[in-house]
Design a protein that fits this description.
The chain is α/β, with parallel strands linked by helices and 227 residues long. The protein has 2 domains: 58 residues, no CATH class; 146 residues, Rossmann fold, CATH 3.40.50.620. The chain contains 9 helices and 8 strands. The strands form 2 sheets. A 5-stranded parallel sheet has the order 6-5-4-7-8. Strands 1-2-3 form a 3-stranded antiparallel sheet. The protein is globular, with a radius of gyration of 20 Å. The N terminus is likely disordered.
C-alpha cells in the first residue's frame, strides 16, 4: 500500500466539507474508503469550490501521469532531497535498470532502505539500458519500470536518469548513503568519488544468488521458445 501524504478536502453530507487524511493507493481509493466508512476523518469546514478543484486536479494528475506520487524529475528531486537532509532525514540512494522486477530486487531494496530513513531510486532510461545491455533490452519500458518501483512500500522516491553511471544524479541529489548491489568494492565504483566528495558513505549489498533478470529471460525462452 502506498501512503499518500496529502490531505484531500471533499464534500460531506453533514458538513460543508470534511478534511480526510489516510493511506490509500490513489485519490479514488481514498474517496471510496471515505464513502464506505473507512479511513481517518476529521471535520473542518473549507471552501467547497477550492476543495473540489483540489480533488479533480489530483485525480487528473494521477490518471494522466500514472504515478502514485513518488516519481519526480531530477530538478524536483534535488529540492526534495535537500529539504529532507535539512529536516534531519538520512537519504539513501541506489540505482539500476530494474528490468523485470524479481525477488532479488525486493530483498536488495529492503536492505538499502534499512540504511536510512528515505530511499531514492535512480532508474536507468531505456536509452541508457541499451547502452550497456544491448539493443534487446530493456524488456520493460522506463515509465513502467519507474511506476513498478514506485509501487513498492520500501521505495520513497523514483527519478529517471539517462547516463550509464550515476555520477551526475548523485552529484545533484547528494544522498547521505549510496548503496550498490554486487561484489564490488567502493574503489571500483566511479560514483564513489562523488559520494565521498561531500562526506557521504558507500555501502555494498550482495546480490541474491540465482535471482536475476537474465535468468528469468533465459527460462522463458527455454520454456516457451519452441512453442
Amino acid at each position: 500500500m502506498v501512503w499518500i501524504s496529502k490531505i484531500y478536502s471533499i464534500p460531506h453530507p453533514n458538513t460543508p466539507v470534511c478534511r480526510l487524511s489516510a493511506g490509500f493507493d490513489s485519490p479514488i481509493d481514498l474517496i471510496y474508503n471515505f464513502i464506505s466508512g473507512s479511513g481517518f476523518i476529521r471535520h473542518e469546514p473549507q471552501n467547497y469550490n477550492k476543495a473540489g478543484q483540489t480533488i479533480m486536479a489530483d485525480l487528473q494528475n494521477n490518471h494522466t501521469n500514472k504515478s502514485p506520487g513518488k516519481i519526480y524529475s531530477l530538478e524536483e528531486m534535488s529540492v526534495i532531497s535537500e529539504n529532507l537532509r535539512k529536516s534531519g532525514k538520512t537519504v539513501v540512494f541506489t540505482n539500476g535498470c530494474f528490468d523485470i522486477l524479481h525477488l532479488g530486487h525486493i530483498r536488495y531494496l529492503r536492505q538499502a532502505k534499512a540504511f536510512g530513513d528515505v530511499l531514492v531510486i535512480g532508474v536507468n532510461t531505456d536509452s541508457s539500458v541499451k547502452d550497456y545491455k544491448g539493443d534487446l533490452r530493456p524488456i520493460v519500458p522506463e515509465d513502467e519500470r519507474a511506476e513498478l518501483l514506485a509501487a513498492l512500500e520500501m521505495v520513497d522516491y523514483v527519478v529517471k536518469f539517462s547516463e550509464r553511471t550515476p555520477e551526475n544524479i548523485i552529484s545533484a541529489l547528494k544522498p547521505d548513503i549510496q548503496v550498490k548491489g554486487g561484489d564490488y568494492t567502493p574503489d571500483q565504483l566511479p560514483e564513489a568519488k562523488v559520494v565521498y566528495s561531500y562526506g557521504g558513505k558507500v555501502e555494498i549489498v550482495p546480490f541474491v544468488k540465482g535471482k536475476a533478470t537474465t535468468g528469468i529471460i533465459e527460462k522463458i525462452l527455454k520454456v516457451y521458445g519452441s512453442k
